[in-house]
C-alpha cells in the first residue's frame, strides 16, 4: 500500500509540474505575442515598416486587411500603407486594449489574438481629424521559436 501511495504522490507531483510548466510556457508565448502587437502599434504610429518586417511572415498569398482595403503581401502593406501615412498624417495615435490571445493545435504553434482598437489622427492635407474605434484580429504562427503574424484584419467606425 505504501508503494502505491508513494507512486500516486509522485505521479501527482509530476503532473502538477508539467501543468505548471505548460502554463509558464503559455504565459511566455502570450507575452511574446503581446510584445509583437506593441511593436506593430509603434510601427503604425511612426510610419516605420521595420516592426512589420521583423514580425510578419512574408509569404505568397499573404493578405492584410486594414481600413477597408487589402494589402497583398508584406511589401504592399509597408510601402503603400504604413510608411506613407507618416507623411500624410500630422499624427496617428493607435491603442490596442482588451487583448485576448488563444492558442490552437496540439503543438500550440498557431495562435490568434483579438483586440479592441482606437485610432485617432489628423490628415495633413485637409486638416481633418478622425477618431475611430473597432476591433483588430491577428493570426500568428510560431516559426523557429518566434511568433510571426500571418494575417491581420482591422475593422473600425467613427467613435460616437
From TrEMBL:
Signal peptide extent: 1-19
Coiled coil: none
Protein name (record): SnoaL-like domain-containing protein
Organism superkingdom: Bacteria
Domain SnoaL-like: 88-155
Taxonomic source organism: Colwellia asteriadis
Name of a matching Pfam family: SnoaL_3
Keyword field: Signal
Amino acid at each position: 500500500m505504501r508503494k502505491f501511495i508513494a507512486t500516486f504522490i509522485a505521479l501527482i507531483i509530476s503532473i502538477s509540474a508539467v501543468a505548471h510548466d505548460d502554463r509558464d510556457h503559455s504565459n511566455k508565448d502570450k507575452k511574446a505575442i503581446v510584445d509583437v502587437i506593441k511593436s506593430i502599434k509603434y510601427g503604425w504610429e511612426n510610419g516605420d515598416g521595420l516592426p512589420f518586417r521583423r514580425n510578419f511572415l512574408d509569404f505568397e498569398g499573404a493578405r492584410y486587411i486594414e481600413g477597408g482595403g487589402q494589402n497583398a503581401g508584406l511589401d504592399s502593406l509597408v510601402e503603400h500603407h504604413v510608411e506613407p501615412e507618416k507623411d500624410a498624417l500630422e499624427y496617428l495615435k493607435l491603442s490596442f486594449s482588451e487583448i485576448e490571445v488563444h492558442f490552437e493545435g496540439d503543438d500550440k504553434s498557431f495562435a490568434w489574438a483579438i483586440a479592441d482598437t482606437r485610432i485617432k489622427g489628423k490628415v495633413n492635407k485637409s486638416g481633418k481629424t478622425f477618431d475611430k474605434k473597432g476591433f483588430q484580429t491577428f493570426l500568428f504562427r510560431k516559426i523557429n521559436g518566434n511568433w510571426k503574424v500571418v494575417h491581420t484584419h482591422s475593422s473600425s467606425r467613427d467613435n460616437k
